[in-house]
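Practice record 12: protein with pyridoxal-5'-phosphate.
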Amino acid sequence: MTHLRTRAVHAGQHPDPVTGAITTPITQSSAFNYGTLERGAAIFAGEAEGYRYSRFGNPTVAALEAKMADLEGAQAAVAFGSGTAVTSSLLLGLLKPGDEIAFLGPLYGGTEGLFRSLGERFGIKAVDATHSGLAACLTPATRMVWVETLTNPGLRLHDLAEVAALAQARGILTVADNTFCTPCLTRPLELGIDLVMHSMTKYLGGHGDATGGVVAGAAALVAAVRKTGLGHVGGNLSPQEAFLFLRGIKTLPLRMAAHCAGAAAVAEFLAAHPAVRAVHYPGLTSHPQHALAQRQLQGGFGGMVTFELLRNERAAAAQVLNALQLFTQAVSLGDVDSLACHPASTTHSFVSPEARAAAGISEGMIRLSVGIEHPDDLIADLAQALQPLA
Ligand code: PLP
Protein backbone atom coordinates (compact mmCIF):
# COMPACT_ATOMS: atom_id res chain seq x y z
CA MET A 1 0.00 0.00 0.00
CA THR A 2 2.02 2.96 -1.21
CA HIS A 3 -0.66 5.52 -2.04
CA LEU A 4 -2.25 7.63 0.69
CA ARG A 5 -5.70 7.11 -0.84
CA THR A 6 -5.33 3.33 -0.45
CA ARG A 7 -3.88 3.61 3.06
CA ALA A 8 -6.68 5.96 4.15
CA VAL A 9 -9.14 3.16 3.32
CA HIS A 10 -7.25 0.11 4.56
CA ALA A 11 -4.55 0.99 7.13
CA GLY A 12 -5.29 -0.19 10.66
CA GLN A 13 -8.46 -2.02 9.68
CA HIS A 14 -9.08 -5.73 8.98
CA PRO A 15 -12.26 -7.81 8.70
CA ASP A 16 -13.37 -8.86 12.19
CA PRO A 17 -11.85 -12.33 12.88
CA VAL A 18 -14.98 -13.54 14.74
CA THR A 19 -17.87 -12.28 12.60
CA GLY A 20 -16.14 -11.37 9.34
CA ALA A 21 -17.56 -7.82 9.55
CA ILE A 22 -15.69 -5.63 7.07
CA THR A 23 -16.33 -2.45 9.06
CA THR A 24 -14.37 -2.23 12.31
CA PRO A 25 -16.95 -2.86 15.07
CA ILE A 26 -17.63 -0.34 17.82
CA THR A 27 -16.34 -2.23 20.85
CA GLN A 28 -18.55 -0.64 23.48
CA SER A 29 -16.99 -2.20 26.56
CA SER A 30 -15.32 -0.47 29.48
CA ALA A 31 -13.44 -3.57 30.74
CA PHE A 32 -12.03 -6.67 29.05
CA ASN A 33 -11.84 -10.27 30.23
CA TYR A 34 -8.24 -11.34 30.53
CA GLY A 35 -9.18 -14.89 31.54
CA THR A 36 -6.58 -15.90 34.09
CA LEU A 37 -4.78 -14.14 36.89
CA GLU A 38 -1.46 -14.86 35.15
CA ARG A 39 -2.54 -13.23 31.87
CA GLY A 40 -4.04 -10.26 33.75
CA ALA A 41 -0.77 -9.78 35.63
CA ALA A 42 1.21 -9.95 32.38
CA ILE A 43 -1.06 -7.37 30.66
CA PHE A 44 -0.82 -5.01 33.63
CA ALA A 45 2.97 -5.43 33.69
CA GLY A 46 3.15 -4.62 29.97
CA GLU A 47 4.57 -8.08 29.24
CA ALA A 48 1.59 -9.32 27.20
CA GLU A 49 -0.58 -7.73 24.51
CA GLY A 50 -4.24 -7.28 25.40
CA TYR A 51 -6.93 -4.86 26.49
CA ARG A 52 -7.85 -4.35 30.14
CA TYR A 53 -9.86 -1.11 30.46
CA SER A 54 -10.99 1.34 27.76
CA ARG A 55 -9.33 4.35 29.37
CA PHE A 56 -5.97 2.78 28.48
CA GLY A 57 -6.93 1.26 25.14
CA ASN A 58 -9.88 -0.03 23.14
CA PRO A 59 -9.98 -2.06 19.89
CA THR A 60 -11.95 0.55 17.88
CA VAL A 61 -9.68 3.35 19.12
CA ALA A 62 -6.59 1.19 18.42
CA ALA A 63 -7.65 0.74 14.77
CA LEU A 64 -7.88 4.53 14.44
CA GLU A 65 -4.48 4.99 16.11
CA ALA A 66 -2.90 2.48 13.70
CA LYS A 67 -4.48 4.24 10.71
CA MET A 68 -3.21 7.67 11.83
CA ALA A 69 0.29 6.34 12.57
CA ASP A 70 0.37 4.91 9.06
CA LEU A 71 -0.88 8.10 7.36
CA GLU A 72 1.65 10.29 9.20
CA GLY A 73 4.50 7.76 8.70
CA ALA A 74 4.92 7.29 12.46
CA GLN A 75 5.84 4.31 14.64
CA ALA A 76 2.82 4.89 16.89
CA ALA A 77 -0.12 7.16 17.64
CA VAL A 78 -2.45 7.78 20.56
CA ALA A 79 -5.97 9.20 20.29
CA PHE A 80 -7.76 11.54 22.72
CA GLY A 81 -11.23 12.99 23.25
CA SER A 82 -10.23 16.35 21.69
CA GLY A 83 -7.29 18.15 20.13
CA THR A 84 -6.97 20.15 23.34
CA ALA A 85 -6.60 16.94 25.36
CA VAL A 86 -3.62 16.09 23.12
CA THR A 87 -2.01 19.47 23.81
CA SER A 88 -2.42 19.26 27.60
CA SER A 89 -1.19 15.64 27.61
CA LEU A 90 1.91 16.59 25.59
CA LEU A 91 2.75 19.31 28.09
CA LEU A 92 1.99 17.26 31.19
CA GLY A 93 3.59 14.10 29.80
CA LEU A 94 6.80 15.50 28.34
CA LEU A 95 7.66 18.71 30.25
CA LYS A 96 8.54 19.50 33.85
CA PRO A 97 8.74 22.69 35.97
CA GLY A 98 11.50 25.00 34.74
CA ASP A 99 11.16 23.90 31.11
CA GLU A 100 10.41 26.35 28.33
CA ILE A 101 8.24 25.89 25.26
CA ALA A 102 8.96 28.16 22.29
CA PHE A 103 6.17 28.60 19.77
CA LEU A 104 5.83 30.08 16.32
CA GLY A 105 2.41 31.64 16.10
CA PRO A 106 -0.08 32.95 15.92
CA LEU A 107 -1.39 29.64 17.28
CA TYR A 108 -4.95 28.46 17.71
CA GLY A 109 -6.10 30.67 20.63
CA GLY A 110 -6.97 27.68 22.83
CA THR A 111 -3.45 26.29 22.47
CA GLU A 112 -1.81 29.59 23.41
CA GLY A 113 -4.23 30.01 26.35
CA LEU A 114 -3.48 26.49 27.55
CA PHE A 115 0.29 27.09 27.31
CA ARG A 116 -0.09 30.15 29.49
CA SER A 117 -2.51 28.80 32.10
CA LEU A 118 -0.93 25.33 32.51
CA GLY A 119 2.49 26.93 32.24
CA GLU A 120 1.89 29.49 34.98
CA ARG A 121 0.56 26.85 37.37
CA PHE A 122 3.21 24.22 36.69
CA GLY A 123 6.24 26.44 36.13
CA ILE A 124 6.54 25.95 32.37
CA LYS A 125 7.36 29.12 30.47
CA ALA A 126 5.77 29.71 27.05
CA VAL A 127 7.87 31.96 24.79
CA ASP A 128 6.35 33.52 21.68
CA ALA A 129 9.07 33.32 19.02
CA THR A 130 6.86 34.53 16.17
CA HIS A 131 8.35 37.98 15.77
CA SER A 132 11.92 37.62 17.03
CA GLY A 133 12.50 34.25 15.29
CA LEU A 134 13.09 30.85 16.79
CA ALA A 135 16.89 30.96 17.01
CA ALA A 136 16.78 34.10 19.19
CA CYS A 137 14.32 32.51 21.64
CA LEU A 138 15.94 29.15 22.34
CA THR A 139 17.61 28.90 25.75
CA PRO A 140 19.20 25.98 27.64
CA ALA A 141 15.77 25.50 29.27
CA THR A 142 13.87 25.13 25.96
CA ARG A 143 12.52 21.57 25.78
CA MET A 144 9.80 21.89 23.16
CA VAL A 145 9.14 23.88 19.99
CA TRP A 146 5.52 24.15 18.82
CA VAL A 147 4.43 25.11 15.34
CA GLU A 148 1.25 24.91 13.23
CA THR A 149 1.51 23.78 9.63
CA LEU A 150 -0.86 26.61 8.50
CA THR A 151 -1.68 29.46 10.87
CA ASN A 152 -5.12 30.74 11.73
CA PRO A 153 -6.61 33.00 10.41
CA GLY A 154 -3.70 34.46 8.38
CA LEU A 155 -2.79 31.16 6.64
CA ARG A 156 0.96 31.67 6.93
CA LEU A 157 3.52 28.82 6.92
CA HIS A 158 6.68 28.05 8.83
CA ASP A 159 9.54 26.21 7.13
CA LEU A 160 9.20 22.89 8.96
CA ALA A 161 12.53 21.40 7.83
CA GLU A 162 14.30 24.54 9.05
CA VAL A 163 12.47 24.49 12.40
CA ALA A 164 13.26 20.78 12.86
CA ALA A 165 16.96 21.21 12.03
CA LEU A 166 17.37 24.17 14.40
CA ALA A 167 15.69 22.36 17.31
CA GLN A 168 17.31 19.00 16.63
CA ALA A 169 20.81 20.52 16.76
CA ARG A 170 20.03 21.55 20.35
CA GLY A 171 18.23 18.33 21.35
CA ILE A 172 14.85 20.09 21.55
CA LEU A 173 11.63 18.22 20.82
CA THR A 174 9.44 19.58 17.99
CA VAL A 175 5.65 19.33 17.72
CA ALA A 176 3.64 20.31 14.63
CA ASP A 177 -0.11 20.83 14.77
CA ASN A 178 -1.19 19.54 11.34
CA THR A 179 -4.93 20.17 11.78
CA PHE A 180 -5.24 22.63 8.87
CA CYS A 181 -3.18 20.58 6.36
CA THR A 182 -3.79 16.91 7.25
CA PRO A 183 -1.30 14.25 6.06
CA CYS A 184 -2.73 14.74 2.55
CA LEU A 185 -0.89 18.07 2.21
CA THR A 186 2.00 17.93 4.71
CA ARG A 187 3.68 15.12 6.61
CA PRO A 188 5.80 16.92 9.24
CA LEU A 189 7.61 13.77 10.44
CA GLU A 190 9.13 13.37 6.96
CA LEU A 191 10.59 16.87 7.38
CA GLY A 192 12.25 16.02 10.70
CA ILE A 193 9.54 17.08 13.19
CA ASP A 194 9.31 14.70 16.19
CA LEU A 195 5.59 14.65 16.93
CA VAL A 196 2.58 15.55 14.79
CA MET A 197 -0.80 16.28 16.34
CA HIS A 198 -4.33 16.96 15.05
CA SER A 199 -7.66 18.17 16.18
CA MET A 200 -9.49 15.30 14.44
CA THR A 201 -12.66 17.34 15.00
CA LYS A 202 -11.81 19.14 11.74
CA TYR A 203 -10.76 17.56 8.41
CA LEU A 204 -10.04 14.04 9.68
CA GLY A 205 -13.60 13.56 10.90
CA GLY A 206 -14.80 15.87 8.15
CA HIS A 207 -18.52 15.76 8.91
CA GLY A 208 -18.78 18.03 11.95
CA ASP A 209 -20.14 15.25 14.14
CA ALA A 210 -17.34 14.23 16.53
CA THR A 211 -14.57 15.75 18.64
CA GLY A 212 -11.19 14.06 18.96
CA GLY A 213 -7.44 14.49 18.81
CA VAL A 214 -4.41 12.36 17.96
CA VAL A 215 -0.64 12.59 18.23
CA ALA A 216 1.83 10.44 16.28
CA GLY A 217 5.59 9.93 16.42
CA ALA A 218 8.29 7.66 17.83
CA ALA A 219 6.95 4.79 19.96
CA ALA A 220 8.73 5.84 23.17
CA LEU A 221 7.43 9.43 23.00
CA VAL A 222 3.90 8.30 22.20
CA ALA A 223 4.03 5.79 25.08
CA ALA A 224 4.97 8.59 27.51
CA VAL A 225 2.08 10.77 26.32
CA ARG A 226 -0.29 7.78 26.47
CA LYS A 227 0.71 7.01 30.05
CA THR A 228 0.08 10.56 31.27
CA GLY A 229 -2.76 11.57 28.97
CA LEU A 230 -4.83 8.40 29.26
CA GLY A 231 -3.61 6.80 32.47
CA HIS A 232 -3.43 9.93 34.62
CA VAL A 233 -5.49 12.63 32.92
CA GLY A 234 -8.10 10.24 31.49
CA GLY A 235 -8.55 12.08 28.19
CA ASN A 236 -9.53 8.98 26.20
CA LEU A 237 -11.60 8.96 23.00
CA SER A 238 -14.87 7.00 23.06
CA PRO A 239 -15.22 4.00 20.70
CA GLN A 240 -18.31 5.62 19.11
CA GLU A 241 -16.29 8.69 18.13
CA ALA A 242 -13.37 6.51 16.99
CA PHE A 243 -15.77 4.76 14.62
CA LEU A 244 -16.84 8.11 13.13
CA PHE A 245 -13.20 9.12 12.61
CA LEU A 246 -12.34 5.75 11.02
CA ARG A 247 -15.23 6.25 8.61
CA GLY A 248 -14.33 9.89 7.94
CA ILE A 249 -10.66 9.21 7.21
CA LYS A 250 -11.51 6.68 4.48
CA THR A 251 -12.62 9.60 2.28
CA LEU A 252 -10.07 12.17 3.56
CA PRO A 253 -7.93 12.30 0.38
CA LEU A 254 -11.04 12.68 -1.82
CA ARG A 255 -12.49 15.35 0.43
CA MET A 256 -9.18 17.24 0.69
CA ALA A 257 -8.90 17.36 -3.11
CA ALA A 258 -12.40 18.87 -3.29
CA HIS A 259 -11.69 21.32 -0.42
CA CYS A 260 -8.47 22.47 -2.14
CA ALA A 261 -10.07 22.87 -5.58
CA GLY A 262 -13.03 24.77 -4.11
CA ALA A 263 -10.82 27.03 -1.99
CA ALA A 264 -8.55 27.84 -4.96
CA ALA A 265 -11.57 28.86 -7.06
CA VAL A 266 -13.05 30.93 -4.21
CA ALA A 267 -9.69 32.63 -3.53
CA GLU A 268 -9.31 33.62 -7.18
CA PHE A 269 -12.85 34.99 -7.29
CA LEU A 270 -12.30 37.04 -4.12
CA ALA A 271 -8.92 38.34 -5.30
CA ALA A 272 -10.62 39.89 -8.34
CA HIS A 273 -13.57 41.38 -6.42
CA PRO A 274 -13.74 45.19 -6.06
CA ALA A 275 -15.08 45.00 -2.46
CA VAL A 276 -12.09 42.90 -1.30
CA ARG A 277 -8.83 44.48 -0.10
CA ALA A 278 -6.75 41.30 0.46
CA VAL A 279 -7.02 37.54 0.14
CA HIS A 280 -4.84 35.22 2.22
CA TYR A 281 -4.49 31.86 0.47
CA PRO A 282 -1.15 30.05 0.03
CA GLY A 283 -2.10 28.97 -3.48
CA LEU A 284 -2.24 32.54 -4.78
CA THR A 285 0.99 33.88 -6.29
CA SER A 286 0.34 37.05 -4.23
CA HIS A 287 0.78 35.06 -0.97
CA PRO A 288 4.15 36.15 0.50
CA GLN A 289 5.13 32.51 1.07
CA HIS A 290 3.80 31.02 -2.14
CA ALA A 291 7.20 29.46 -2.98
CA LEU A 292 7.43 27.77 0.45
CA ALA A 293 3.81 26.64 0.09
CA GLN A 294 4.62 25.04 -3.27
CA ARG A 295 7.50 23.17 -1.64
CA GLN A 296 5.86 22.20 1.63
CA LEU A 297 2.24 21.57 0.68
CA GLN A 298 1.70 18.69 -1.70
CA GLY A 299 -1.40 18.15 -3.80
CA GLY A 300 -3.11 21.43 -2.91
CA PHE A 301 -3.02 24.54 -0.79
CA GLY A 302 -5.74 23.71 1.72
CA GLY A 303 -9.41 24.42 2.13
CA MET A 304 -9.23 27.63 4.20
CA VAL A 305 -9.45 31.10 2.66
CA THR A 306 -9.25 34.33 4.65
CA PHE A 307 -10.09 37.70 3.11
CA GLU A 308 -10.33 41.34 4.13
CA LEU A 309 -12.97 43.78 2.98
CA LEU A 310 -12.05 47.14 1.48
CA ARG A 311 -14.43 48.64 4.07
CA ASN A 312 -12.48 47.56 7.12
CA GLU A 313 -15.36 47.66 9.60
CA ARG A 314 -17.24 45.11 11.68
CA ALA A 315 -20.51 46.39 10.20
CA ALA A 316 -19.32 45.58 6.67
CA ALA A 317 -18.23 42.07 7.73
CA ALA A 318 -21.62 41.58 9.39
CA GLN A 319 -23.42 42.68 6.23
CA VAL A 320 -21.56 40.08 4.15
CA LEU A 321 -21.71 37.24 6.69
CA ASN A 322 -25.39 37.77 7.48
CA ALA A 323 -26.24 37.69 3.76
CA LEU A 324 -24.50 34.34 3.09
CA GLN A 325 -26.87 31.45 2.46
CA LEU A 326 -24.71 28.42 1.65
CA PHE A 327 -21.92 29.23 4.11
CA THR A 328 -23.00 28.65 7.71
CA GLN A 329 -21.70 31.06 10.35
CA ALA A 330 -19.73 28.82 12.71
CA VAL A 331 -16.18 28.65 14.07
CA SER A 332 -15.07 25.09 13.36
CA LEU A 333 -13.48 24.06 10.06
CA GLY A 334 -12.81 21.13 7.78
CA ASP A 335 -16.43 20.00 7.48
CA VAL A 336 -18.00 18.94 4.18
CA ASP A 337 -20.31 21.97 4.66
CA SER A 338 -18.84 25.42 4.04
CA LEU A 339 -18.47 27.59 7.14
CA ALA A 340 -17.69 31.29 7.60
CA CYS A 341 -16.65 33.31 10.63
CA HIS A 342 -15.50 36.76 11.74
CA PRO A 343 -12.27 36.05 13.69
CA ALA A 344 -12.19 39.43 15.52
CA SER A 345 -15.56 38.82 17.22
CA THR A 346 -15.33 35.02 17.65
CA THR A 347 -12.11 32.95 17.63
CA HIS A 348 -9.91 35.95 18.50
CA SER A 349 -12.39 37.98 20.60
CA PHE A 350 -10.45 37.18 23.78
CA VAL A 351 -7.27 38.65 22.32
CA SER A 352 -6.62 42.36 23.02
CA PRO A 353 -7.23 44.78 20.10
CA GLU A 354 -3.46 45.52 20.09
CA ALA A 355 -2.55 41.81 19.84
CA ARG A 356 -5.18 41.37 17.12
CA ALA A 357 -3.66 44.25 15.18
CA ALA A 358 -0.16 42.77 15.60
CA ALA A 359 -1.45 39.44 14.25
CA GLY A 360 -3.08 41.27 11.30
CA ILE A 361 -6.64 40.35 12.36
CA SER A 362 -8.75 43.25 11.14
CA GLU A 363 -12.42 44.08 11.75
CA GLY A 364 -13.13 43.55 8.06
CA MET A 365 -11.58 40.07 8.01
CA ILE A 366 -13.66 36.97 7.20
CA ARG A 367 -12.43 33.38 7.39
CA LEU A 368 -13.94 30.72 5.15
CA SER A 369 -13.73 26.97 5.56
CA VAL A 370 -14.57 25.91 2.03
CA GLY A 371 -16.61 22.70 1.99
CA ILE A 372 -17.09 20.18 -0.79
CA GLU A 373 -20.08 21.85 -2.45
CA HIS A 374 -19.68 22.84 -6.12
CA PRO A 375 -17.38 25.92 -6.24
CA ASP A 376 -19.74 27.71 -8.68
CA ASP A 377 -22.51 27.64 -6.05
CA LEU A 378 -20.15 28.89 -3.32
CA ILE A 379 -18.91 31.70 -5.57
CA ALA A 380 -22.49 32.68 -6.46
CA ASP A 381 -23.30 32.87 -2.74
CA LEU A 382 -20.26 35.07 -2.05
CA ALA A 383 -21.05 37.23 -5.09
CA GLN A 384 -24.57 38.01 -3.89
CA ALA A 385 -23.36 38.70 -0.34
CA LEU A 386 -20.57 41.04 -1.52
CA GLN A 387 -22.59 42.78 -4.23
CA PRO A 388 -23.96 45.63 -2.01
CA LEU A 389 -20.38 46.55 -1.05
CA ALA A 390 -18.99 46.60 -4.60
N1 PLP B 1 -5.44 22.98 16.88
C1 PLP B 1 -6.05 23.75 15.97
C2 PLP B 1 -5.25 24.28 14.82
C3 PLP B 1 -7.41 24.07 16.09
O1 PLP B 1 -8.01 24.85 15.17
C4 PLP B 1 -8.14 23.55 17.20
C5 PLP B 1 -9.57 23.85 17.39
O2 PLP B 1 -10.14 24.70 16.75
C6 PLP B 1 -7.45 22.76 18.15
C7 PLP B 1 -6.11 22.49 17.95
C8 PLP B 1 -8.17 22.20 19.34
O3 PLP B 1 -8.91 21.09 18.98
P1 PLP B 1 -10.27 20.63 19.71
O4 PLP B 1 -11.29 21.70 19.46
O5 PLP B 1 -10.59 19.32 19.04
O6 PLP B 1 -9.95 20.49 21.16
